[in-house]
Write a structure and sequence with these properties.
The protein has 259 residues and is an alpha/beta fold. Helix content is 34%, strand content 23%. It contains 9 helices and 14 strands. The strands form 3 sheets. Strands 1-2-3-4-5-6 form a 6-stranded mixed beta sheet, covered by helices on one side. A hairpin with a 4-residue loop joins strand 9 and strand 10. Helix 5 runs antiparallel to helix 6 (194-208). The longest helix is centred in the last third of the chain and has 15 residues, at 194-208. The structure holds zinc ion and fe (iii) ion (FE).
Length: 259
């Protein structure tokens, strides 16, 4: 349902080399989730600074830089850990397993769950429609996408297709600050994309000032992220795969792996 009072307050915590952990706080109930807590201590500090009590962990996938803080945070707070059903055996401390088509309520704020395999076989994304917020882990990055460790280009293209279909004003809360190097690569795919060139300049300015580029909007991604644009004839021609979005996506992903 659409309850304006259930809009999330979101805080971004930079951890490790380039990870982001998010706190998502639903003010009406006080429910507070840590999304992909790579490590525990910075999360504990951020909670204390806000005066929030941790009630949930939302994991997108099993990698340690997304789940490494699970057990310490659960032990300290008794929080409920939510994660992908398809990977429940690999999520430390998981209490609630969710998958495609499920909804999960963080207090009064409802998330819709998408299965988005490709980076890992059990990767999920959480879309809080009323907050226009998407927590997509390592599936979609600003100007990039996750490496295909456990999935095929076809799976990842289908996964990204689910995210592409969300409203363009959706804010993309991805789990890594990779945007500047992604922009350098994207410009090699679409050197004549004026929106991309302008965005790359804004990104350089943000990073020069030590500021995060994340979140961005899905609308910006649709206009500038080559991994979302493999269905466009110009990119397909360039990849030598006219009419074939999956082959075009695979070719771009392969080039990025070696960039
Ligand atoms: Zn990962
Ligand atoms: Fe990661």
């Amino acid at each position: 349902g659409s309850d304006p009072m259930a809009t999330l307050v979101i805080r971004q915590i930079p951890v490790l080399r380039d990870n982001y952990v998010y706190l998502a706080h639903e003010p009406q109930s006080g429910a507070t989730a840590a999304v992909d807590p790579a490590v525990a201590p910075p999360v504990v500090d951020a909670l204390a600074a806000e005066g929030w009590r941790l009630t949930h962990i939302l994991n997108t996938h099993h990698h340690n830089d997304h789940t490494g803080g699970n057990l310490a945070l659960k032990q300290a707070t008794g929080c409920t850990i939510v994660g992908p059903r398809a990977d429940r055996d690999r999520i430390p401390g998981i209490d609630v397993a969710v998958g495609e088509g499920d909804t999960y309520k963080l207090g009064q704020a409802e998330a819709r769950i998408f299965d988005v395999p490709g980076h890992t076989r059990g990767h999920i994304a959480y879309w809080f429609q009323d907050s226009a917020a998407l927590f997509c882990g390592d599936t979609l990055f600003l100007l990039g996408c996750g490496r295909l460790f456990e999935g095929t280009p076809e799976q990842m293209w289908r996964s990204l297709g689910k995210l592409k279909a969300l409203p363009p004003e959706t804010r993309v809360y991805c789990a890594h600050e990779y945007t500047q190097s992604n922009a350098r690569f994207a410009l090699t795919v679409e050197p004549r994309n004026a929106d991309l060139a302008a965005r790359a300049k804004r990104i350089d300015a943000l990073r020069a000032g030590g500021k995060p580029t994340v979140p961005g909007t899905l609308g910006e991604e649709l206009a500038t992220n080559p991994f979302l644009r493999a269905d466009l004839p110009a990119l397909q021609e360039e990849a030598g795969a006219p009419g074939d979005a999956v082959a075009t996506f695979a070719a771009i992903r392969h080039r990025k792996d070696n960039f």
